[in-house]
Specification:
The protein has 11 helices and 9 strands. The chain has about 375 residues and is of the alpha+beta class. The chain has 3 domains: about 120 residues, Butyryl-Coa Dehydrogenase, subunit A, domain 1, CATH 1.10.540.10; about 100 residues, Butyryl-CoA Dehydrogenase, subunit A, domain 2, CATH 2.40.110.10; about 150 residues, Butyryl-CoA Dehydrogenase, subunit A, domain 3 (Up-down Bundle), CATH 1.20.140. The strands form 3 sheets. The chain has a 4-stranded antiparallel sheet, covered by helices on one side. It has a 3-stranded mixed sheet with strand order 1-4-5. The chain is globular, with a radius of gyration of 21 Å. It starts with 15 loop residues before the first helix and ends in a 6-residue tail after the last helix.
Length: about 375
């Protein structure tokens, strides 16, 4: 038997440095995530702060950023790290994506030098955890409708509003918060210990249970002028951060799919029915072949996007193609693998149902499938169908 990615020897397309980086992340996941993640998921709680420090030691937080203690790896290497992390659990990859591609990237791209020096080295080390406050209770796919506002009060700002479904919020030290001001939309770096900030953890989740998710409530929070991200002007700023995070998801979803398929291949090779292994039945092999085919295609797509990113030519609609395809196909793979395990497919002893449940969230966040379809449709036709 071969592993799922090994079918087309796709790792031969990687450089030695890229393979080595991916292998180091896989070892971390094998040592520190796999032995515990089923329990984290069942209990709905993971040691996020401790895990962040271990991820920081390996340079995984803001890995694709340069300077300020960041590793500065290539886009492909960063994508491979997302694949390996999500092969462990989507929640672990979400921790890294939100920290590095949303909160850190926003400060790195749009922040002042003072903000960068204050926050980025500590965030890269996992000593400070950040979150990204864009989604609101009534504004998810339409961030332009946000109602969170900041008004001037002398030299300060007063921030009021609510952000919902915010990964890392319950364990975070700071939030990059997007708000409407008189001139439009801008961002602020908000320490979560400030008076007027309330963080409510969201419980009873059926997905991403190894990830901390919360609500942020701002009640006339007083912020100095220096809290504003000076380079963030208009909705394009937060949307560019989402593009960064979506790129990681293109790779990450493949990790969940690979783990499901590898698990299923091992299982059907040893599980016997009607006197022979399940792997010897035609219908089983047809399912495995179809899933492996989609996994290879998704990997090639992710790698192509990574090479475009490293060349500096990657476009947002191209990331939408990757996110739409790879998450959709990963979810199909997880569901099909569940059928191959029969009743055992729902057991926490195996990772497949956990991955399938997690991918239901991945399918929705950072842009629903419908949003990405419309992004692609607009590029193809030149017409916006959002309104």
């Amino acid at each position: 038997m071969t592993d799922a990615i090994g079918l087309l020897a796709l790792e031969s397309l990687l450089s030695a440095e890229e393979r080595a980086f991916a292998d180091s992340v896989r070892r971390l996941v094998d040592d520190q995530v796999r032995p515990h993640v089923a329990e984290w998921y069942e209990n709905g709680r993971a040691p996020v702060r401790e895990l962040a420090r271990e991820l920081g030691k390996l340079g995984l937080l803001g890995a694709h950023l340069t300077g300020y203690g960041c590793a500065g790896v290539s886009a492909v290497a960063y994508g491979l790290s997302c694949l390996e992390l999500e092969a462990g659990d989507s929640g672990v990859r979400s921790l890294v994506s939100v920290q590095g591609s949303l909160a850190m990237f926003a400060i790195w791209k749009y922040g002042s030098e003072e903000q960068k020096q204050q926050w980025l080295p500590r965030m890269a080390a996992g000593e400070a955890i950040g979150c990204f406050g864009l989604t609101e209770p009534d504004h998810g796919s339409d961030p332009a409708g946000m109602t969170t506002r900041a008004v001037r009060d002398g030299d300060d700002w007063l921030l009021s509003g609510t952000k919902m479904w915010i990964t890392n919020a319950p364990v975070g030290e700071l939030a990059v918060v997007w708000a409407r001001i008189e001139e439009g939309i801008t961002g602020f770096v908000v320490p979560l210990a400030e008076p007027g900030v309330t963080v409510n953890e969201i419980h009873h989740k059926m997905s991403l249970r190894a990830s901390a998710t919360g609500e942020l409530v701002f009640d006339n929070v007083r912020l100095p002028a220096s809290a504003q991200l000076p380079g963030a002007r208009g909705l394009k700023a937060p949307l560019s951060c989402l593009t960064e995070a979506r790129y990681g998801i293109v790779w990450g979803a493949l990790g969940a799919a690979r783990d499901c398929l590898d698990t299923a291949i091992r299982y059907v090779g040893t599980r016997e029915q009607f006197g022979r292994p399940l792997a010897g039945f035609q219908l089983t092999q047809a399912k495995l072949a179809d899933m492996a085919l989609e996994l290879q295609k998704g990997y090639l797509l992710a790698l192509h996007l990574g090479r475009l990113a490293d060349a500096g030519t990657l476009q947002p609609e191209q990331v939408s193609v990757g996110k739409l395809n790879n998450v959709r196909e990963a979810l199909k793979i997880a569901r099909t693998c569940r059928t191959l395990l029969g009743a055992n497919g729902i057991s926490g002893e195996y990772p497949i149902m956990r991955h399938a449940n997690n991918l239901e969230s991945v399918l929705t966040y950072e842009g629903t499938s419908e949003v990405h379809q419309l992004v692609i449709g607009q590029k193809l036709t030149g017409l916006s169908a959002f309104a």
